[in-house]
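Narrative progress, year one. The postdoctoral researcher (J.K.) led the effort to move from monomer predictions toward full complexes, under supervision of the PI. The following entry was the first complex the group processed end to end, covering 778 residues in total.
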Amino acid sequence: MKITGIRERSVTLASKMRNASIDFSKMTASVVAVTTDAVRGGKPVTGYGIGSNGRYAQGGILRERLIPRVMEADAADLLDETGENFDPAKILAQMMLNEKPGGHGDRAVACAVIDMAMWDIVAKLAEQPLWRIIADRFNGGAHDDRVLVYPGGGYYYPGKGLAPLQDEMRGYLDKGYRVVKMKVGGADLDTDLRRIDAVLAVVGDGSNLAVDANGRFSLEDAIAFGKAVESYGLFWFEEPGDPLDYALQAELAQHYPGAMATGENLFSRQDALNLIRHGGMRPDRDWIQIDPALAYGFSEYLHIDAMLTAHGWDRRRQIPHGGHQLGFNMAAGMQLGGSESYPLVFQPWGGFADNVDIVDGYARPHDTPGIGIELKSAVYRELKTLAAA
Amino acid sequence: MKITGIRERSVTLASKMRNASIDFSKMTASVVAVTTDAVRGGKPVTGYGIGSNGRYAQGGILRERLIPRVMEADAADLLDETGENFDPAKILAQMMLNEKPGGHGDRAVACAVIDMAMWDIVAKLAEQPLWRIIADRFNGGAHDDRVLVYPGGGYYYPGKGLAPLQDEMRGYLDKGYRVVKMKVGGADLDTDLRRIDAVLAVVGDGSNLAVDANGRFSLEDAIAFGKAVESYGLFWFEEPGDPLDYALQAELAQHYPGAMATGENLFSRQDALNLIRHGGMRPDRDWIQIDPALAYGFSEYLHIDAMLTAHGWDRRRQIPHGGHQLGFNMAAGMQLGGSESYPLVFQPWGGFADNVDIVDGYARPHDTPGIGIELKSAVYRELKTLAAA
């Protein structure tokens, strides 16, 4: 059994929206199709990986470093101990051959896309949905039949006033979401407070609203913002300062008693460990948002999960960033706190299965083998052409 | 005045050597040529950038993200306040447009190559060697007429015994070097101690020998190694553990009283600040080795230098990694502790000018405008073809 090919393509995630840190006018992501000579249901098994948003496509690293290393490996060295399935950890190790430590950035994003495809293959070979594989292997067989999902939304758009922002949030509630998220830090404090008030008028209690500063605030700005919103009891205050400024995060925790969340721009177990060691995150209320589709994949996430557990963090405090089906499978199979979701933005790549029902803010996992990419028709149409390329 | 083109190419740094972390069998780097419509001596001014070693070529990021952003900018927005020269900081900001915070890896390497070319241009437009520009702008006009240089060497090669290692070190001394560096951590402790003893038999006192573990050791291994070599009084013990494991570094400082050095795998001012905040580095004896040609360039390094100074670090404790002419210019112009040097490895890209004289372990800065790349004939031959491509 072997990998017969790995094909990659850059796809556009471009839109007119922006957060406090960047605009998405030229945003791209890498997608991959990993073909194998294994057969299920009379057809060769193919796995798909879709890059998460925010860090651009990684075609150069994929073509020049990662794909050749995997294709040059002895096929038997990439299988698990049964010899009947692949071992994604071994494939990740092969991708990282002769890569120096540290500097976890674009390389982590590139590895993650292939790792996602490998986990899709693992589940397809076992003829199980990925969340069930995860539950059996890493959660003693237990899983959740419904997963908390929240839409990453409330971006800034040119000329967008309060009424369209309220319409967007009403749309999420109409779809079945309870907790919504909006961007902050991309306008002055007064403007942001008016935006927050407008959204609260739609979603009701502050516990239904998370806000995300995308790393924009200085410590002083973060403290001022925190004081201004403290009484709302928000679901969380996300990525207040530079994601690597652990001291800022720790100091802010002395000023803001509400829940905080961060992690989407930490791309390795060592970076995550530094957050836990130095960032003053509070296991009784804060949230960890490492994105497996940006950070070397689910294979690396397992080490991050083990580290968090060893430091006394409950898995319910993990909510992966990215709004992708990998995060959703992980949330169901590991019984995490939930998963981000993109019902409106980053289309067609954002969002879950076409037919997914959101009820009271929760979504049910799928029944088909793999990650479930085939259940998202617009995405699957494009990925099929990549596999056949 | 404007940039008329940015061309990039991947070049090979491949060799059979390895350190404790990787082998260099497929090592590559990006080189760039930035052409302008400015004229000096009757010819258009071209700047050159050469990627440092260890993190591979970055053609994808250069072609897809960085170069288009620079070429799409309004030319006037890239000039300094005089309008008669470029402002590399503005060009770096343009390269980083719509890049999220955190994740400082391959992107930092790609930015650094173009930033190097821009500083080459700045100096050529001023018709000065770069070290003099640096001295005038950032060091009150003072500079060093000689720079401490040490060869990064002593790599592991297949089948290489002690005698060839000693021959290599003798070769460095014959060239005029005093302090040499060798790799450790790629063999068991006994083997490494025999290698160290063999080199000390050549270079004499331990103060002439630095050792580099390339991030390979666990805390326990690093403590054990430190105890084994403590009595030698080595010049430094470099990158003992994972470069992002600041707690390991801080704990090791409680066990190893000798000098330590690290930083080549930290790629931003925030990562460097974390090392200073959390890594227990000792300003009275340790060394900071950030590589400007891997970490967003000299434009970013200026912020790192300011941060180090604000935290009480003398500039003499900085010795940039990478063995390139940029680091050498910085060492001379900012009066740093010195610069790494690659007289033998990474050829033809390693090393300084063809005619550079090393005397008592020091080298003299050049007199020609720019970084001095034209003084290295094999490199300049290849870069000229890139500029004309």
